[in-house]
UniProtKB/TrEMBL annotation:
Pfam families: CarbopepD_reg_2, Plug, TonB_dep_Rec_b-barrel. Residues 117-207 form the TonB-dependent receptor plug domain. The keyword Metal-binding does not apply. Keywords: Cell outer membrane, Ion transport, Iron, Iron transport, Membrane, Receptor, Signal, TonB box, Transmembrane, Transmembrane beta strand, Transport. Gene3D superfamilies: Carboxypeptidase-like, regulatory domain (2.60.40.1120), TonB-dependent receptor, beta-barrel domain (2.40.170.20), TonB-dependent receptor, plug domain (2.170.130.10). InterPro entries: Beta-barrel_TonB, Beta-barrel_TonB_sf, Carb-bd-like_fold, Plug_dom, Plug_dom_sf, TonB-dep_rcpt-like, TonB_sidphr_rcpt. Belongs to the TonB-dependent receptor family. It is a multi-pass membrane protein. It comes from Flavobacterium ginsengiterrae. SUPFAM superfamilies: Porins, Starch-binding domain-like. Residues 303-725 form the TonB-dependent receptor-like beta-barrel domain. It is found in: Cell outer membrane. It comes from the Bacteria. This is TonB-dependent receptor.
Amino acid sequence: MSAQQNGKIKGTITTSDGELAAGVNIILKNSKYWTVSDENGNFEFNRVKPNTYTLQVSLAGYETSESEIIVAESETASVNLQLKVSNKELKEVVVNSKKSILSKKTDYVARMPLTNLENPQVYSVIQKELLMEQVAVDIKSAVQNSPGVVSISYPSGGVGVIFRGFSTGINARNGMETVSGRSSVDLGNVERIEIMKGPSGTLFGSSVSSFGGVVNLVTKKPFETTAAEVSYTTGSFNLNRLTADVNTPLNKEKTVLFRVNMAVNREKSFLDYGFNNTLLFAPTLTYKASDKLTFNIDAELYNVNNTRRTYNTYAATSGITNPNDLKIDYKKSMFHDDNDAKSSATKVFAQAEYEISDNWKSTTVFSYVGEDVERSYQSYAVWSSPTQVARRVGLWGPIYNNYTNIQENLNGQFSTGSIKHKFLAGVNYRLYSSNFSGGTTFTLDNIDITTPFAPIRRKAVDAGLVLTSSPVADQKTFSAYACDVVNFTDRFSAMLSLRLDNFERAKVGTVEGYSQTALSPKLGLVYEVVKDQVSVFGNYMNGFQNMQPVTQPDATQLIVDPVYAVQYEGGVKAEAFNKKLSGSVSYYNITIDNATRTDLNGYTFQDAKQVSKGLDFELMATPVKGLSLVAGYAYNDNKIVRASQAANIDGNKATGAPENVVNFWTTYTFQNKLKGLGIGAGANYVDKNYFTADNTFYMPSYTVYNATVYYEKPSWRLGLKFNNLTNKKYWDFWGSSQAPTNILANLTIKF
């Protein structure tokens, strides 16, 4: 029989909790064929003689299973198998089922199952296993494991990031819109963090993405075995943090699965005043209604009571160039912690996934996010010299922001002749409603901080507040998008994507509403130089922001187009040495050539230009058993090419855009003697970045060193983390001083 008449067997193996199973032994009984599944759970047998075979799969801790498979002439037999945990090994398997920190498997980045090497976009995935190594207790320290990403704390109490020269919030959760601008994020329900680089408006829209990219949080999902984990972390500044993760099937058929994550956090600030108390409750339910239909429902209820960091500004005549010039003590607060904030976030996500056929799938998603601010006292310091400051306070709240999204996605695979297609089509309807009230910001006093002073109390603030309320216009957005990944060969593919957004803002008060339509394309090419190991790629990506009409000084109205950012990028990705190395390097150019500017007479024009270009490098490796490395470098040159005549900033660096950013982390776990003992160390470097567009005031560069030591057994783990070993004084973009040397101790028990 000729080779051309032989067939193939291809398949994917998953564990009982839905994870891809690597290192599984696969044997065709009574034949010469055997193999081992790769990191993505895939395996393949080529040139198999037509016959009926018994396929045997085995992995330590799981039941050995057998299934019959028929191989026909010149055809490929496909099989998907799920391992079942043996009762004998159940506990150990649950404890040790860790995902590799190198894994970049995701269905959210492209909204379809593309591998990293197939995707013409650069992205990072930060697994919870890496965060556990680092005893990460907040989102700010977690995101800095991605090249070029720098965390920021908003004066409103939320968190965000800067990368590729632009800032963005934590705006996506399981691929849908979320918000964290006033309530922040807790890591207690986070499985992994996905950071997509570059304008991503085509698939995510303007409300989720910035011109720098998208940050997507993937939450923890239920699985088929019973397991529980309790973790307690204590440390400097009176930190006490307790988390619990409980998972169980609710019926013996394991078609109804339930998981709940909880986190309680209590801590003081390293400043002499300030605190942060939070509570998270996150239940999740999966219901397998049939072999084809699965429902997933999850929620997050997050309550926050804390103090906001002071927002510092600097008079042009102050002589101050950076926070190091200030004569105030690094740990001193000018405001008492009874000027607090109280907010809550409610997040609900419901998904119905239906397999129409072997090649087509429908996914219907509902998402609701509500962020409510009961009160938010926010403090401001206006510096007129290194020693003279005006203290101001404002009250924000009650405020609510509600975001509702309904989305339908259709994913499929088909062929046109020898060309294969992976196809996505989707629609999204978004409704935003809000209400705003609060007390106007006012100055309480001017002080010389070199002389004794008392912190401002809330009673004094309340006496001077004038309460106001402002109506907020509702927003509606209808979006339609499509993406076709065309595989011309098994190595060469093209991605063709397009999104249409129709944005409507209602009339509010005397301000007229407006409607705007944006069209956002995305194109990409990928060629695998070494099959399944090295690929080269290029992309054209587009992001946009809707802009309301502008009333000019002569009472005429300027209809403003959406502001577009266009990126061109090219680079190389690698997943080599049997998945022990994952890396990428790319060069990008992001141009905004229709930004708005205002001239000396107050007239607005839409002809300003900004160019952000740079280099991203990422390397993750597990070269030998027990050793892991995570490293990244990003160079960014973000300049205002053309701006307002009045501003006189042509050629200046954009604000919040550090030129060089470096991240590094490595750990080693002993394998023989002292097995389970591990050590780790790392560093983060952030270049100086300008706070003002005239480039006169900046945040200094800094390098922070961290280290860890831990001891891990199958049912428990003890870890110590040492942060900011050199006691470096440094500030984020908004001028918030960061914590000095501190220690965390963590105990985790698994059941």
